[in-house]
């Protein structure tokens, strides 16, 4: 079909030209002698003005919102008083010679023009209408531009784009697998990849040297605003590199992307924090650094203090940390306390500065100790001190959640830079699961230990082993994570032992990979970026669902295609699967 211009591209310079346009009817404004049809396509909107004596007048009158039409006509400069800067085509209008309905639309379930406040499930059910909204289309186009910028950079750096299988074996990244039954091998299952981790390492063993892929990954875990069961990673791996090489290349890539796509300059080099410092100062391994509000350590001030809860915590080897905030209402403090409790704290102790002393829940705290507290925190008159006390990790994590909630309550991030990026390094290699008292991996079992710490494997101090692992953090989101990998078979075996895999279990799960390590493996390392999350932050969107064309809702359902769904008995028989009755839930 012949089309001369995108609707949204019309400008004053086109005045006098005959054009053929095609698009959606955004709305029609009718007057006795005139109708204005607002036509829309992916580039924007323009006004088609139809006078009563125009042969297209009757057709224009009957147009319904969201129908697809073709308009031929002449572009005319609007009269002085009629111009508008509300949209880029506002200097012109189109006088039609013909208006043809190509596809009539029934009444849409929500107005595409004004979907503000429409229930998200309804938007997801009619996603194709939702995506007609300029904001949504802009997000998809931003995503496409980010992908193009990344591809151009990595191609120029000699990276090879390789696809890895979707139907494969389990690749552990700490989530549950999605399983796919095999018809040809009844009783057997593929797992969808949680990441291409093992395949990209095998590509290094194969000699590819530099690999990347926009990889779809599948993780069956509880959903949040920044998680989907299937999502996209920018996955990378490099041979003969150190941690510094990986960080350096990724910084340059990230700076390139932000410059190309948003015209934003990120710092060089990126700030770095160790895992310990990030946790100790901000209570998070992905701190939002658009604002400071770091914790002050006041453990020493509470040793043997009258405030028994804190004194006991210090006695037991714990810490007392304080977050200094401005004036807070009682209601705000209650809200922050709720957040602390969700993170496992028993409550949120607080003090308000009044003169040279304090009021509040633990105001018995007076005299020289109070003066020290004033001095160390620098709290202003009327300002609030919020405390986290107990064993280090629990105490800082609870106060870290309070810090984030405080940001949202008081809009703390809005005064800072638009983007605050940082590396978090020196993660622990192993993590003790408090419920089962067993060791597990912190990143994944293929991450290399710091060479200075590797001798601690198998000793009571193995929790102190640092990993050569790093996360890329942006505005409080983990947008990337990676590591230098184990490349010596003996170290890989020690790592499996440390997390309680017997030789036989390790061989059953990863035998093919352990064998591959013995055929000549280059030292290697890499990273994966959470691509959806990155685009979400770049778009300033509140959820990754806003930057994914067809996402699932927060219960993992595709409300448009209606997935997941039951399948025919016959189909189940074919793949050798019987569905057990759902377990009765006690309520
Ligand atoms: N496979 C890792 C992940 O998905 C990333 C990496 O280590 O490169 O988190």
In CATH, the topology of the largest domain is named BirA Bifunctional Protein, domain 2
Main sheet attributes: strand count, strand direction, barrel closure: 8 strands, mixed
Bound molecules: aspartic acid
CATH superfamily of the largest domain: Bira Bifunctional Protein, Domain 2
CATH class call of the largest domain: Alpha Beta
Give the overall pLDDT as a whole number.
Answer: 94
Shape: globular
Gyration radius, rounded: 30 Å
Strand content: 15-25%
What's this, in brief?
The protein has 587 residues and is of the alpha+beta class.
Would you give an account of this structure?
The protein is α+β, with helices and mostly antiparallel strands and 587 residues long. The protein has three domains: 97 residues, OB fold (Dihydrolipoamide Acetyltransferase, E2P), CATH 2.40.50; 199 residues, 2-Layer Sandwich (BirA Bifunctional Protein, domain 2), CATH 3.30.930.10; 126 residues, GAD-like domain (Gyrase A, domain 2, 2-Layer Sandwich). 29% of the residues lie in helices and 24% in strands. The protein is built from 16 helices and 22 strands. It has an eight-stranded mixed sheet, sandwiched between helices. Helix 4 packs across helix 6 and helix 7 packs across helix 12. The longest helix is centred in the N-terminal third of the chain and has 23 residues. The chain is globular and about 90 Å long. The N and C termini lie far apart (60 Å). The relative contact order is 0.10. The structure holds aspartic acid.
């Amino acid at each position: 079909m012949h089309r001369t211009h995108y609707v949204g591209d019309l400008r004053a310079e086109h005045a006098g030209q005959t054009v053929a346009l095609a698009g959606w009817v955004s709305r029609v404004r009718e007057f006795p002698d005139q109708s204005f049809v607002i036509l829309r396509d992916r580039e924007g909107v323009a006004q088609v003005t139809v006078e009563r004596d125009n042969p297209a007048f009757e057709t224009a009158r009957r147009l319904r919102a969201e129908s697809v039409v073709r308009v031929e006509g002449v572009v005319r400069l609007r009269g002085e008083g009629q111009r508008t800067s509300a949209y880029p085509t506002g200097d012109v209008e189109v006088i039609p010679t013909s208006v043809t309905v190509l596809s009539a639309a029934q009444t849409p379930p929500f107005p595409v023009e004004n979907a503000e406040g429409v229930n998200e499930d309804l938007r997801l059910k009619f996603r194709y209408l939702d995506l007609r909204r300029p904001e949504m289309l802009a997000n998809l186009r931003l995503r496409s531009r980010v992908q193009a910028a990344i591809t151009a950079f990595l191609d120029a750096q000699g990276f090879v784009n390789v696809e890895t299988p979707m139907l494969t074996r389990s690749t552990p990244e700490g989530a549950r697998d999605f399983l796919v039954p095999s018809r040809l091998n009844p009783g057997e299952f593929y797992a969808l990849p949680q990441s291409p981790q093992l395949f990209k390492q095998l590509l290094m063993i194969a000699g590819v040297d530099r690999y990347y892929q926009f990889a779809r990954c599948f993780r069956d875990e509880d959903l949040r605003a920044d998680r989907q069961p299937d999502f996209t990673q920018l996955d990378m791996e490099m041979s003969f590199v150190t941690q510094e090489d990986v960080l350096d290349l990724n910084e340059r890539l990230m700076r390139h992307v932000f410059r190309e796509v948003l015209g934003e300059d990120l710092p060089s080099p990126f700030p770095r924090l160790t895992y310990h410092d990030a946790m100790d100062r901000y209570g998070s391994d992905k701190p939002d650094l658009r604002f400071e509000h770091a914790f002050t350590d006041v453990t020493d001030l509470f040793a043997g203090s009258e405030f028994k809860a804190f004194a006991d915590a210090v006695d037991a080897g714990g810490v007392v940390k304080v977050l200094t905030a401005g004036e807070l209402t009682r209601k705000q403090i209650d809200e922050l306390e709720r957040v602390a409790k969700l993170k496992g704290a028993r409550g949120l102790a607080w003090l308000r500065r009044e003169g040279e002393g304090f009021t509040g829940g633990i105001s018995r705290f007076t005299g020289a100790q109070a003066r020290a507290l004033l001095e160390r925190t620098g709290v202003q008159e009327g300002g609030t001190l919020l405390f986290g006390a107990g064993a280090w990790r629990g105490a800082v994590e609870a106060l870290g959640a309070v810090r984030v909630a405080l940001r949202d309550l008081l809009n703390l991030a809005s005064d800072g830079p638009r983007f605050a990026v940082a590396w978090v390094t020196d993660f622990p290699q192993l993590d003790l699961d408090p419920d089962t008292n067993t060791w597990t991996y912190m990143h994944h079992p293929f991450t290399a230990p710091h060479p200075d710490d590797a001798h601690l494997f198998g000793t009571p101090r193995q929790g102190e082993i640092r990993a050569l692992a790093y996360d890329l953090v942006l505005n409080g989101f983990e947008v990337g994570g990676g590591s230098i990998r184990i490349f010596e078979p003996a170290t890989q075996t020690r790592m499996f032992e440390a997390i309680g895999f017997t030789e036989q279990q390790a061989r059953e799960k990863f035998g093919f990979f352990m064998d591959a390590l013995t055929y000549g493996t280059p030292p290697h390392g890499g990273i994966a970026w959470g691509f959806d999350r990155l685009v979400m932050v770049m778009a300033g969107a509140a959820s990754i669902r806003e930057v994914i064309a067809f996402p699932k809702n927060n219960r993992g359902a595709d409300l448009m295609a209606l997935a997941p769904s039951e399948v025919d008995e016959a189909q189940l028989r074919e793949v050798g699967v019987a569905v057990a009755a759902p377990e009765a839930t006690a309520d």
